[in-house]
Amino acid sequence: MRRVCFLLKVREDRAEEYQRRHAEVWPDMLAALRETGWRNYSLFLRPDGLLVGYFETDDLDAALAGMAARDVNTRWQTEMAPFFEGLDGGAPDAGITPLTEVFHLDQENR
């Protein structure tokens, strides 16, 4: 299992709406995430728009590819794209660059 953490930047003037949208994620989007191997997925938003994402998966490439192939994800990404800075019109999923894990409390032998 791999833990994946990433950062994106939500436009400050859209942060409240972004939060509202995520309070009502489409059921078929939630199902697609689960079906493609995204587990324990969380998003954390700082008031200035810094978004921290975290999820666990057995295969990052397969999880990303699986979502990229889903129509519901294409629709969701299209709706979410205007909320973000620095993606040059691209889908937010394309901005996922995993951070390097440097410490994990429960991992004794690195």
TrEMBL record:
UniProt-listed Gene3D superfamilies: 3.30.70.100
InterPro entries per the UniProt record, alphabetical: Dimeric_a/b-barrel (IPR011008), Rham/fucose_mutarotase (IPR008000)
Pfam families, sorted: rhaM
Matches recorded under PANTHER family: L-RHAMNOSE MUTAROTASE
Protein name: L-rhamnose mutarotase
Species of origin: Actinophytocola glycyrrhizae
